Amino acid sequence: MTELSSLDDLKHYHFSKKKRSFLIIALTVLALFLTFMATLMIGNYAVSWNDVIGILMGGGTSAERQIIMDIRMPRLLCAALVGAALSLSGLAMQSLFKNPMASPSILGISSGAAFGASLAISFGIGAAVLGSYSIPFMAFVFCFVTMGAVYIIARTKYGVATVTLLLAGVAVGAFFNGLVSLVQYIADEETLAAIVYWTMGSFNKCVWDSFYLAVVPVVLGIAIILFRSRELNMISAGEEQAANMGVNVKLTRILVITGTSLCVGGSVAISGTIGFVGLIVPHIFRMLVGPNHKLLIPLCILGGAAFMMGIDTISKAAFSVSIPVGILTSLLGAPFFIYVMKTRKKEMWE
Amino acid sequence: MKVDINGVEFSYASNAVLKGITFGAGTGEVLGILGQNGCGKTTLLKCMNTTLSPCRGCVTVDDSCVQEMSKKEIARKMAFVTQTTNITFPFTVYETVMMGRYSRIDALGHETEKDVESVYEAMNETEVLKFADRYIDELSGGERRRVMIARALVQEPEILLLDEPTLHLDINHQFDLMELIRNLATARNMLIVLVTHDIVLAARYCDRVILMSRGEIAAAGTVKETIRPDNLRRIFEIEADVTEDDRFGMSVVVVGKADRSSATREEEEIPQHVRHGIRAENTSAEDYGICRTDCVTKFKSANAIRGYGSQEEDR
């Protein structure tokens, strides 16, 4: 614990904290790069580090290039995109609602997307025009339909209160969950299996087109939330106090929710619903570095991407069949989360 | 700098909380607002910094209507320390105080040496520098309150609004905090408006006092003019001895509860000019005529966009 007594002490403290933040971000970037390289190497056909570097530089045999550049690379980039998007969305929701239990699913967006995908899988809605893209398209559309419904329900003539928004999200989410169950109930066995598999989340069907589909909304959503880091800091310390310090709370709320919708919409469109990531990744980093969003947001983006790439690689390499990542995020994420919580709880939950 | 509150009215649905509050205040003074629970003290502070939008009337700082200012402009003019501190995600003391620079830092949020210096000054004045690296939830109530005042000071405001700053503090820390408030008003030449339930501290540390009752100003003026046994009996229904002390100024000793019937009877006799409060020097209702209409109209439409601080949210 540092005890400060002069202006020089405080300046030193301020700038050393900044240096520390840069160092932590640099290390996380390095960890992300190493995870990326390692996951490119691992698979049914093992590729060495040097070969991966060679292939990335344009070398390698055509078979190796096909494995790395056309199969593993788009799948990994999709996993990175989804991991970053879900982690950041969870962080944004926890801070906006000042609720440590909040996650991207808190506003019912994931449930809405699941319903959209279920409609496409069961009834082939949109398939005539969009073909195989009808599922991600319907998921994406229903993300925004859900968001709009939640916002309209929560709106009163005085504005939108955060608690009302939260409750409307829970209610709309429950409603769409009910609809998904209804679609599952009336679906035949094959369709039911497809819906259940989709709701577990997987990157098995991710190709370059999937990446192109998700990259624009996710990057846009991340950028919106990233540029609101100071406001999120202040709102997480109290909305009224944030407004007293000059924050436009309503504008921030709208932007953060839009950013979250873009992130979640883009993610579920290509991977299905993957639970738990948005809850545990922000908490792990918050326990490690504290609640300052200026550091927490970059860490959640980078760490979330690395986490999801790692989990996806385990899901496809550690078992004889590829297991849906949604199962592994819970099975592996929860014990790790508990470990961090027990060892680092001093800062946050004591 | 002068702040004028003119004819401010506020209602929660059909429940009128403020009924035409009018007063003025200037730099360097500590203005205490006292009254029973639910008389509209905190609502008045919230109307002053536009957390709540008045149904009628306006608040001006140097003749500029605050309802027409942006959130950042208001934050640069006045800071508000609320009763409670949210610690769902506890930040360090330094991070918490630095947040107060929001309205003065560029849009990209780059903190410069000037910002660090401002934070140092505020933390030094409030004696929280030694806690810089500690988490806010590790501090006592009194220490936390000082941190919140430091955060308000780094906004470099001309007006500091404090809502029950001594709430939950022991008597020793109450005096410490009030000494700090008194010194800040002098050293920074700022207007401090504080809502308090503590008549003893208000009598000792305030320059002027407004006594509120049922959304109206029941008495206003210097401590000597307002904190009198008859006013206290009428507004708080208490019997008190008020004496002037050479060492400590005004001192109040509360003896017990007053006879309710006599207090009620006396309240009916509040002179009309006192009910309307104290008016700033050289100003009149006409001075506010145009501003009042413009502000209310503009603010109501602005509120539809701004959203935060709507009546529903703050209820």
Description:
The complex is a heterodimer of chains A (350) and B (315). Chain A has 350 residues and is mainly α. Chain A has helices at residues 7-41, 49-56, 62-96, 109-123, 127-130, 134-154, 162-186, 189-200, 208-226, 229-236, 239-244, 249-271, 277-289, 293-317, 325-348, and strands spanning 155-156, 159-160. Chain A has one domain (7-348): ABC transporter involved in vitamin B12 uptake, BtuC (Orthogonal Bundle). Chain A contains 15 helices and two strands. In chain A, strands 1-2 form a two-stranded antiparallel ribbon. Chain B has 315 residues and is an alpha/beta fold. Chain B is built from 13 helices and twelve strands. Chain B has helices at residues 41-48, 71-77, 93-99, 113-125, 141-153, 171-187, 199-205, 223-226, 229-236, 260-267, 272-275, 289-306, 311-314; strands at residues 2-12, 15-26, 30-35, 56-61, 64-65, 78-81, 159-163, 191-195, 208-213, 216-222, 238-245, 249-257. Chain B has a six-stranded mixed sheet with strand order 6-7-8-3-9-10, sandwiched between helices. The model of chain B is unreliable at 270-315 (pLDDT under 50).
How would you sum up this structure in a few lines?
Chain A is mainly alpha-helical. Helix content of chain A is 78%, strand content 1%. In chain A, strands 1-2 form a two-stranded antiparallel sheet.
Write the layout of secondary structure elements.
The complex is a heterodimer of chains A (350) and B (315).
Chain A: H1 7-41, H2 49-56, H3 62-96, H4 109-123, H5 127-130, H6 134-154, E1 155-156, E2 159-160, H7 162-186, H8 189-200, H9 208-226, H10 229-236, H11 239-244, H12 249-271, H13 277-289, H14 293-317, H15 325-348
Antiparallel strand pairs in A: 1-2
Chain B: E1 2-12, E2 15-26, E3 30-35, H1 41-48, E4 56-61, E5 64-65, H2 71-77, E6 78-81, H3 93-99, H4 113-125, H5 141-153, E7 159-163, H6 171-187, E8 191-195, H7 199-205, E9 208-213, E10 216-222, H8 223-226, H9 229-236, E11 238-245, E12 249-257, H10 260-267, H11 272-275, H12 289-306, H13 311-314
Parallel strand pairs in B: 3-8, 3-9, 6-7, 7-8
Antiparallel strand pairs in B: 1-2, 1-4, 4-5, 9-10, 11-12
Helix pairs in contact in B: 3-5, 4-5, 9-10
